[in-house]
Description:
The chain is of the alpha/beta class. The chain has 16 helices and 10 strands. β1, α1 (about 15-30) and β2 form a beta-alpha-beta unit.
Amino acid sequence: MPGRIGVWIIGAYGSVSTCVVVGAEAIKRGLIGRTGLVTDLREFEDIDLVGFDGLVFAGCAARESTLESASAEVQATAGILPTSLLASLTAPLAEVDRRFRRGCALNCGEAILGMGPVRNGDHKTAKEIGAEFQGNLRAFIREEGLRTVVVVNLASTEPYAEMPPEFASLAAFRGLIEKDRRDRLAASVVYAYAAIDAGFAYINFTPSWGASPPAIQELARERGVPHMGKDGKTGETLVKTVLAPMFVARNLKVLSWSGHNILGNRDGLVLKHPENNKNKVKDKDEALRKILRDDDAQSHVRIDYVPSLGDWKTAWDHIHFQGFLDVKMTMQFTWQGCDSALAASSWHTSRVIALPPRARFVRHARIEREPFPAPMLKNQPLRPIIKTGEAVPPSRSIGDDEH
Ligand SMILES: NC(=O)c1ccc[n+]([C@@H]2O[C@H](COP(=O)([O-])OP(=O)(O)OC[C@H]3O[C@@H](n4cnc5c(N)ncnc54)[C@H](O)[C@@H]3O)[C@@H](O)[C@H]2O)c1
């Protein structure tokens, strides 16, 4: 019996976070369908995943709001949370809201600090920020009688910064925390460190550092704690990472790949800031480069904030490639999706990461029988649990892209 699992969202009141909570509470009550949930696929049917009824939400926010107004905001910008649905969820949403705490926005940049009253953690040391976070997670377990908590980072993209050399080893990283070198840290990495240090699984849905520094991975190995992800692939990048292997498999040479994304939600507003934008674009670009394995291929990614579009993102990709007889050809695609709805169906990887280590694998033979192309599975956030009959060692990252 999986027991009740807590999902602690960093970035509460964000669009994705709000859609996650509203979606899960609606599913619990049979008010919406379950399309888009990967864990509903038959590869997972004999795995003892926690049911939706066993998921309890809490989290921390950097800006002042309520779930009621955050939901109304999503409805206004995306039109995907009808008033009638929200009316049926008033009581459960208020209950989740009571569990939301204030977060810290250490070195999250002007874009985030400019979104209204925020707590930037300036008055606390890095050690105190981490201890408070761990205290919140332990209190959540105690008060709700949970088996464990999974921490999911759904906060805004932090500004780009070079990884400090101290991030290379746990000992050096701990030195930064001890000496309170907040100039070298950011909220996402302090949260990831604190969660994993206290033994809680961690998922990073954003391009921010999170658990990606080698020091945090060393800590995860030491503690035997699973962690996964760096920027969920939900829209244009998902399509891109499925299409790119096709060019590689047919030995078609990609000469250039240009992608132009326009969106008008708060994420877009944050990404309007050059340093935050750089962090996101870098991740999209890296995903493609890893697959193409061709340094000559030109890759351009642009993200522009277009307020009139709200949460409905449009991406246009132009792929120029060369085939046999050196013939140059072009492929183009346009992707139009509701950003938060796409992302909110991916959060449920928490159901997998919350499994006991021995249960965290799926047999390879079943995957091979699947009708959809391997890259589809490969680029799902769940890909690394798909291993040939072996459990993923609990210490390894189970979500970074592997291509
Ligand atoms: N399809 C998608 O929408 C998609 C896909 C992949 C990744 N992402 C990433 O998911 C994240 C969330 O996207 P969104 O559209 O919900 O953005 P959003 O701006 O609506 O929400 C982010 C929330 O995080 C809060 N926040 C920022 N820093 C924080 C901190 N340190 N602690 C606590 N809260 C903090 C902000 O106040 C904001 O309310 C972004 O980083 C985005 O790039 C989204």
